[in-house]
Design goal:
Blueprint (H helix, E strand, L loop, with lengths): L26 H11 L1 H5 L2 H12 L10 E2 L10 E2 L3 H7 L2 H21 L1 H12 L3 H12 L6 H11 L5 H8 L11 H28 L4 H9 L4 H12 L1 H13 L6 H7 L5 H4 L2 H11 L3 H29 L6
Antiparallel strand pairs: 1-2
Helix pairs in contact: 4-17, 5-10, 6-10, 7-10, 8-14, 13-17, 16-17
Length: about 325
């Protein structure tokens, strides 16, 4: 017969109260403790935060001139409230709709061709077993990323000039020289081609890093099940890098309307405006060259709203379909 080890209190004496559970630290206390412990690490984020504050968030206040009449030399927030006057102006401007279509075309072609090529290149490099060959291909493909936009545009213009190397090669086959730079129908091909050359190699870095996280046991199990190399890529490799692919796709969709301003500005000319002029270059000419700052601000705000809607919609669609999203 067992006896209890807990003795009862003597008659007339109350049991002592049970000790209170330890109080959980508040979120503010936890944050302060972490800040004191790792202040060196948090200090590294100070300059990036200042950069985004000064060059990204504070300039947003200037969007108010899209609804106010701005006069040079006056208030930076405009002189007079005009409502949606400038919005109505660009909605009724045929030139705006032309550059809007050009932006959609160039942005869509860039997304269709420039997004999958780094994935294909990363998969090919992952299959290379000779380390020396793999490093050589990576170095050659990464190099254009480190060239300035002016150099890239200069190389493109020189290669495609009427007396350039491309037309010399065409001349060997009896073809007349083609004015690539002056013909509007060639601009989109030139832009997308130069974009692929400049960004494809650098874009493989994230995919190659994602490939290293795939468990080798999955490949071993696939080989045991009789899967060939293509089937392993389809059923193991691509699902393994799918989160990275979805994340980069969402980011690319978010910048869909922000077609590279610098490259377009350096490559286009008055003859190629019908296919080359995009919203960013139109805003530049309208705001900086023509000093119509309020009108340019209204167009820029419209472009930003479309970008916000695109990235939000892509994120929600990705979350519901594949379960991966940015936030």
């Amino acid at each position: 017969m067992s006896t209890s080890t807990k003795s009862a209190a003597p008659p007339g004496v109350q049991n002592p109260p049970a000790p209170a559970p330890p109080k959980a630290p508040s979120a503010r206390t936890t944050w302060r403790r972490a800040l004191r412990r790792d202040w060196q690490l948090y200090s590294l984020a100070l300059l990036p935060l200042l950069f985004f504050l000064v060059f990204r968030y504070l300039p947003m206040l200037g969007n108010v001139i899209a609804f106010r009449r701005f006069e040079p030399g006056g208030s930076i927030f405009g002189e007079q409230w005009v409502g949606l006057r400038y919005v109505e102006m660009f909605f009724n401007d045929p030139t705006f709709w032309q550059v809007f279509r050009n932006t959609l075309w160039i942005g869509g072609l860039t997304l269709v061709f420039c997004f999958p090529i780094p994935i294909v290149l990363a998969l090919l490099l992952n299959e290379v077993r000779r380390r020396s060959l793999k490093r050589f291909v990576q170095s050659v493909s990464y190099l254009p990323h480190f060239l300035s936009m002016v150099i890239v545009a200069g190389i493109t213009l020189q290669m495609l000039a009427s007396d350039g190397p491309v037309n010399h090669v065409l001349g060997w086959f009896g073809h007349d020289p083609i004015r690539f730079i002056q013909e509007p129908e060639w601009f989109r091909t030139i832009y997308v081609g130069s974009e692929i050359w400049q960004t494809a190699g650098w874009g493989t870095i994230l995919y190659l890093a994602a490939l290293t996280t795939i468990d080798e046991d999955l490949y071993e199990a696939a080989r045991i099940d009789g899967a060939n190399r293509w089937q392993q890529i389809w059923h193991v490799t691509l699902p393994g890098i799918r989160p990275t692919m979805i994340t980069l796709l969402i980011l690319n969709i978010g910048t869909f309307m922000a077609v590279g301003f610098e490259k377009v500005l350096l490559l286009y000319n008055a003859l190629t405006y019908p296919t080359a002029d995009v919203i960013s270059t139109y805003v530049y000419r309208t705001g900086v060259e023509s000093s119509s700052f309020s009108y340019a601000a209204a167009i820029g705000l419209f472009e930003a709203i479309i970008g916000l809607v695109l990235i939000t919609s892509a994120n929600q669609l990705s979350r519901r379909t594949v379960g991966t999203s940015l936030w």
